[in-house]
Design goal:
Helix content: over 70%
Number of domains: 1
Largest sheet: none
Strand content: under 5%
Distance between the termini: 16 Å
Oligomer: single chain
Low-confidence stretches: none
Number of strands: 0
Order of helices and strands: HHHHHHH
Shape: elongated
Radius of gyration: 16 Å
Structural class: mainly alpha
C-alpha cells in the first residue's frame, strides 16, 4: 500500500466512525425532507466500508469509485450547510458561528477528495 492509500483508508474509516460517535453534528446538516438519522447511519457505514475496501488490492479500484459516488451523494448536505447555516444552528450545531467564507471554501474540498480517491485507487502504471 502506498502512503496515499493508507491515508485515504484511514481518512474515510475515521470519518465514517465519527458518524456514530457524533451523529448530531451530521444529522444537523442533512437537508430537510430526508431521514437524517438513517442518512447519517448509511453514509457512515458507506464511508467505513469504502475506507476498508481501499486496503485490499482486490477491492481497491471499486473502493475508489464507491468513495467518489459517496462524495457526490453527500455533497448536498455540505451545500445545505453553506446556504442555510441558521437552519443548521437551529438543529443544535453552531454553523452560524462559522465564517461564511469557510463554509464556501470547504465546498471545493469535496471534488479534491474525490480526485484523491480516484488517484490513490487507480491501477499502478504498467500493471493495468
Amino acid at each position: 500500500m502506498t502512503r496515499s492509500q493508507r491515508l485515504l483508508a484511514g481518512f474515510f474509516t475515521f470519518a465514517g466512525t465519527m458518524h456514530f460517535l457524533r451523529p448530531r453534528e451530521y444529522e444537523a446538516i442533512v437537508p430537510p425532507g430526508l431521514p437524517a438519522r438513517e442518512a447519517v447511519a448509511i453514509s457512515g457505514v458507506a464511508e467505513i466500508a469504502g475506507g476498508l475496501a481501499v486496503i485490499s488490492p482486490a477491492t481497491r479500484r471499486l473502493a475508489g469509485w464507491w468513495l467518489i459516488a459517496l462524495l457526490i451523494a453527500v455533497f448536498p448536505a455540505n451545500v445545505y450547510m453553506t446556504l442555510h447555516p441558521d437552519q443548521v444552528a437551529k438543529r443544535g450545531v453552531a454553523a452560524d458561528e462559522i465564517p461564511i467564507a469557510l463554509l464556501w471554501a470547504r465546498l471545493p474540498l469535496q471534488p479534491l477528495i474525490a480526485w484523491w480517491a480516484w488517484r490513490a485507487t487507480r491501477p499502478a502504471r504498467g500493471r493495468r
